[in-house]
TrEMBL record:
It comes from Actinomadura rugatobispora. SUPFAM superfamilies: P-loop containing nucleoside triphosphate hydrolases. This is ABC transporter ATP-binding protein. It is a peripheral membrane protein. Residues 8-258 form the ABC transporter domain. The lineage of its organism: Bacteria, Bacillati, Actinomycetota, Actinomycetes, Streptosporangiales. It is found in: Cell membrane. Pfam families: ABC_tran (PF00005), oligo_HPY (PF08352). The keyword Membrane applies. InterPro entries: AAA+_ATPase, ABC_Ni/Peptide_Import, ABC_transporter-like_ATP-bd, Oligopep_ABC_C, P-loop_NTPase. CDD domains: ABC_NikE_OppD_transporters. Keywords: ATP-binding, Cell inner membrane, Cell membrane, Membrane, Nucleotide-binding, Translocase, Transport. GO terms for molecular function: ATP binding.
Amino acid sequence: MTGPGPLLSARDLSVRFRLRDSVVQAVTDVSFELRPGRLLALVGESGCGKSVLASALLGLLPGNAEIRGEVWLHTGSEPVELTSAPERVLARQVRGRRVALVPQSAATALTPVRTVRAQLVETLRELRPGKGDRHREADALAERVGLAPGALDHYPHELSGGMIQRAVLAFALAADPDVVLADEPTSGLDRPLVDRTVDALRGIAEDGRAVLLITHDIAAAERAATDVAVMYASRIVEQGPAADVFGDPWHPYTRGLLAATPARGLHPLPGHPPNLSDLPAGCAFRPRCPRRDTCTGDPALAGLPGPRALACARPPNGDRPC
Ligand SMILES: Nc1ncnc2c1ncn2[C@@H]1O[C@H](COP(=O)(O)OP(=O)(O)OP(=O)(O)O)[C@@H](O)[C@H]1O
């Protein structure tokens, strides 16, 4: 990836959950960068570790989690390493301020007994220093995310799912964050609303922010992403510019995810992802890989010539990598 430096960079990030009889390997050796003006889509089937990764970036892991690696936020006067930052720094300077989260279930993110405007104005008063016309700022935020300002005067239950989703985006932008993390922001929405939501996220990136879109909706990722990281069984297995990865996927898992989209005939990926507390030895995708009978490799994610990276035993060799 070229262009301006990253606003957030994760290096060899791993998360383990210690349970009574087992250890869940939720995130393993994940590295990526979030850059201004770009939207990185983190895609993969349910349970592969995407949400745990987002929680790790914000210091929101539960007590039984062990985290390794580094996450650097480069947006203030000095870089902050988020995995070791004190909770007071994360709470007062990072979460909701420099790094905003668009949560998975938008409807439950808002209080049902107050209008959206009352909640947004209160959030603006808390997050923006100095005096200002918070109602006017709320209207401007609503317009920024494609919501008519009049909708703010309603209670959450009076709004449609798509309007709520856009209201939640407005909350995420209240502090003018540099980085926006959106965790499955389109779950439960119909296709036109999915499109509008991811278009709004893409617009937020184009304003100069860095956006991480976590989704298992490949069509949504294809529509909005500038870059993509494909996650399988806690690891990133393919990474690169979205046009390259979606246009010419190299990892058999990426190919399978794409083949399962409606636009490509809905061919389901055979088998199921492995249990993260009982991962097979070697390549975790092998039991589902079309080349499992002839491939015994166990590659780590490795950079290729150009901006792409791949974890597959058949690296590019002039033809196709696998
Ligand atoms: N507190 C926890 N203790 C133990 N295991 C956990 C905990 N939180 C998450 N996990 C496990 O971590 C793994 C990754 O979960 P995660 O929610 O990140 O997946 P995901 O890719 O976001 O899937 P989904 O889209 O369904 O949310 C799962 O096996 C999950 O059961």
